[in-house]
Structures
1.
Amino acid sequence: MDEDIIKRMDCQTNSKQDVKGKQNIKATVLQKDVGLFSGVCLIVGTMIGSGIFISPSSVLLYTGAVGPCLLIWTACGILAMLDALCLLELGTMITKSGGEYSYLLEAYGSIVAFLYTWTNAIVQKPSGLAVITLSFATYASTPFYPGCTPPVVVTKCLAAAAIVVITGVNCFSVKLASYVQNFFTAAKLFIIAVIVGGGMVMLAQGKTENFSNAFDSPSLSAGAIGLACYSGMWAYAGWDQLNCIIEELKNPHRNLPLAILIAIPLVSVCYVMVNVSYFTVMTVTEVLGSPAVAVTFGDRVLYPLSWIVPLFVVFSTIGAANGGSFASGRLAYASAREGHMVQVLSYISLRHYTPSPALMFNGFLAMCLIIPADIYSLINYISFAQWMFSGLTSLGLIVMRFTKKEIHRPFKVPIIIPALMVLVSCYLVLAPILHEPALEYLYCTIFIFSGLIFYYFLIYRKVKWVNSLMRPVTMHLQLLLEVAPPQKIE
């Protein structure tokens, strides 16, 4: 980056600070503004999003009965906790933002880490934001189109507007984004409590017929279980969010373990109890036939106050989108800082101390992906790539036990846990492919490894004309967005 440009930005900053009386001057780095409560809210608020309101029917579709369905939801909660324990050791050992990207970089080196950020920062994270905002748009627009499905153009425009607002909030202030997250987390826990409370009342009144013969279903194949876990794990996705922003977490060696140990069991209990409530008032056929299970439940149990369910589901989905955007921007920021993405994505706002270029990049890609988006195909696509790299991350933990013995580990899990997660990840990748082969898995694999072409020319060879092209672009974006490279503080 031109030194003249940096000096000009520093001059602008210094002049503004002089006008304000030279108050406390912060270094141009991400600030530690996230405490334990906000950390718990980030995990809970991101995990409880659209999945529990969309996925119950797809989990049930592959299991075929109430009993196996509830077992899958419980198993997914256990898997999420085991994987989070692996990330807990890695997060307290490598306190760098970016989550799995930073751990793969440390364990395997530059190539694997680049393929991860190529897949996640370009497709997976923006796809997740696109799916959640589409779910938000569907729930928000449905009341205005009674008796019919909202027009596609309406839901997609509303989803795009939500992405713009969420990205703007996250660019403006870390504290504001945390407050927004805390509010929406409280809202979604409230509606979860309402649904569970309604279900428990119905159970107390003797509505137990749907639980008789709960395990009467056709024999399950390994592939069907894998596909059911795909949909279930989509609902649990988000347990790794705090690892992505660990540089902004106060006292990470204390707050990261506490946040994970509080948040994930809480979400697991909520999910199982919500499903029990669903089955209390709906049969298997009715759950499978309902496009919005939570809304159907509200119509039957909470009338005439059933309108609160879609309202709070809207709150839930927008809160999950906010949490996902908050963490996803840090992945692009961390990878750009290591030279794996364009340099400007590693810059920090001089006004707000947020990685605003990376956040805008994630939001722009999400808006592009809502155009062809189909929720269930995106779920399968995302899960396929997610479990590939999740397995590599767990394997990397085992590898570093032997190659990085000198690194201090404040928290250490039994090695059997990452070994088990490697096997589970391999199963969740291979079983659905063998059960229902689909071209989307091939496209996903081709896309992941096509990153090697870009790595060779842009990272390994460092083609000069690309740097020459990006230099003026970076300069103008830096001036326009008022951002600067992060300072190195020892």
2.
Amino acid sequence: MTDLVAVWEVALSDGVHKIEFEHGTTSGKRVVYVDGKEEIRKEWMFKLVGKETFPVGAANTKATINIDAISGFAYEYTLEINGKSLKKYMESRSKTTNTWVLSLGGTDYRIVLEKDTMDVWCNGQKLETAGEFVEDGTETHFSVGDHSCCIKAVSSGKRKEGIIHTLIVGDREIPEAVE
């Protein structure tokens, strides 16, 4: 990787993906790697600006690298996820998902709740869950290894805050991770 010009990390439900981009400004070469695997390779492109679109993650989320000339032979590289800048995508994603990172029995786990679908992901796998209504909200039950887990959804009582989701493993409350 001699012409590596940009690296991004994108947190999706199935994990954090590393996107690397090589741009040969003399040859016009463009290479895109996702998690170390080559997704796109184009040699001898005469147009040095433009865009490359490719899928990322288990849900084949659409990613686009924009290549723009700034001045002379300087270039700017920006990443879009589902048509939004990476920053805007991550801001909107923080509103639609909750993420917890924890260690159980020496194994690290990253658990993601997609609030719109109530899907629960753990280390890249969508989990089987069982939801039930309880007195003060809902509980979504699932297992991680041999640990029983539950995400409790309770109203905050405040319109701006909405519903508060809490992960309980055994009898321990897990703090939410900031991504």
3.
Amino acid sequence: MDESEDVPKDFIKLKSEKLSVDEVSELVISPYCGAVSLFVGTTRNNFEGKKVIHLEYEAYTSMAESEIKKICRDVRQKWPSVKHIAVHHRLGVVPITEASVIIAVSSPHRAESLEAVTYCINTLKASVPIWKKKSQSIKQQHTMKG
């Protein structure tokens, strides 16, 4: 494979189906890269001391995709050696332990891909119009007087 066959690519997907770490990581693998860094954000069962049943995400899809593309452009300016970037975010209900977001970045060396994946998730959470709603279990205590 020559260099022209492995041009840098961005893979952006917002979907309601379950996300796959294997699928996302395979998108960014390149024979020119010795590092693939991943971030997987999952739904945990608690938030601020309250039980969480699931998370639910909604997005302004076209704007979210546009903002993620900007993040990818920023990554390529900050870390020019980055080869491929994949950002998959789930929409709708996400049960406990399932992935809400998976970000994968490949580069020749680990430092660039690790820094880039951290930048991606931090910037995504700060600037991309994807909203999270927590469904919490609220236990009410009733006092019986008799």
